[in-house]
Amino acid sequence: MMSVGKVYLIGAGPGDIKLITVKGLECIQNADTIVYDRLANPRLLSYRKPDAELIYVGKLPDRHTLQQHEINQVLVDEAKKGKVVTRLKGGDPFVFGRGGEEAEVLKEENIEFEIVPGITSAIAVPAYAGIPVTHRDCTSTFTIITGHEDPTKEQSNINWQRLASDPGTLIFLMGVSNLPKIVKRLVDNGKDKETPIALIRWGTRPEQEVVTGRLDNIVEEVEKAGLTSPAIIIIGEVVNLRDTLKWFETKPLFGKRVLVTRSREQASDLSQKIEDFGGESWEYPTINIKPPEDFTKFDLAIEKINDFNWIVFTSVNGVKSFFARLKSLNKDIRVLGNIKLCAIGPKTREEIENKGLIVDYMPEKFVAESIIEGFKTILNPNEKILLPRADIARPILIDSLLELGMDVTEVMAYRTVIGSRDNEELLTKLKNKEIHVITFTSSSTVKNFISLIENEDLETILNGITIASIGPITSETARSLGIKVDVEAKEYTIDGLVQALVDYTN
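Predicted structure:
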């Protein structure tokens, strides 16, 4: 008989994926089935196991994908198949998340469950808008109220008279459609009509939008702004602190969702820097790094490593691949002896130095042409050079070294292949203009991106999207394929690319 599985009821937080708890992320990574809703950031799903099943049960104000009793049954059915089930809910599962109802059903069915609290939007969203829910100069209390209940119904679970007289902060969750009725109930029960109020839509995300006003004009202000759900309503003197304390919207890349096209192994550095500046990175690797299909030439070069005077590394991937192969052949850095090392740029140099080695030469500009210029003054004729690099590397470096009279051995250290991820999600986000910036960090990322959207009208799909390139070689490739480059890094590094983007958008 199959053993019954387990269900984790998890709060995904308010939207920014880094606001999920460590335990919540672990539950996503270990789940066999993930049951998720509309308010949980879909980027969190990228941390799932490759074979994890996804079940969407999201709700909209005017329609439900599944009714609550049907969602409960999904959790029961999946657990009874012996699966580890993660129920991923926006915010916190026990703050108007109906997690209590789901837990009760699981208890009745003798299914083991755990509650993994999340950061509730009631606190986090105002914080991202620069509004503390408490402040010693304003209030020491706050109240969280459902915004779904119709304030005009005869029997209400909300004590409107008490709320109207409450000097603390009032926070209504999911109450945009009821805003006029909420305001009227509060004012009719004695709330000062000049009380500050704010509505915050999609808080903590690039789409975050804030509308402020007073109880007597907020309905008009919201209509003027065209603000719709999902949003929270916060009422009280703390709203006045927003002008002083707002921080998220002042970051230089706020509001920008940036597509990162480099390989997953290298994407994190760029993604982190984008998010440090307030943007949201969306990793969609257009290339994957793979080992060579045949190591014969590579291994032969390593066996005769002491014949070489120089090893020229043109990428971090080249460094990683070389030393991984060295180790697989049961050798270490001692075999390099007096061989001199060249790195094309600071990140490549850093990767070499992490191995305990010192780089002898790095060009001022981080392209192959600059290596040649520098080598003209430091190389002797007939010196032997090992060049471990990608299968699709430009020929200019090896051709130029041969022209200088060098003895060059080029070996394929790794292959770059087109990303295997389904492109439907990418195309949807591009067409919906949910992507604001596309970054290209090499010619191969450009070429593979084009391959992924080859059946689309390039001009239409990229209209209004900023294209950022790491340097002139990448830009040249993009333009040759019909892509207009808006931003080009002055320093051909990840730091240079991000700085160029910041300068361009401000």
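Summary: The radius of gyration is 28 Å.
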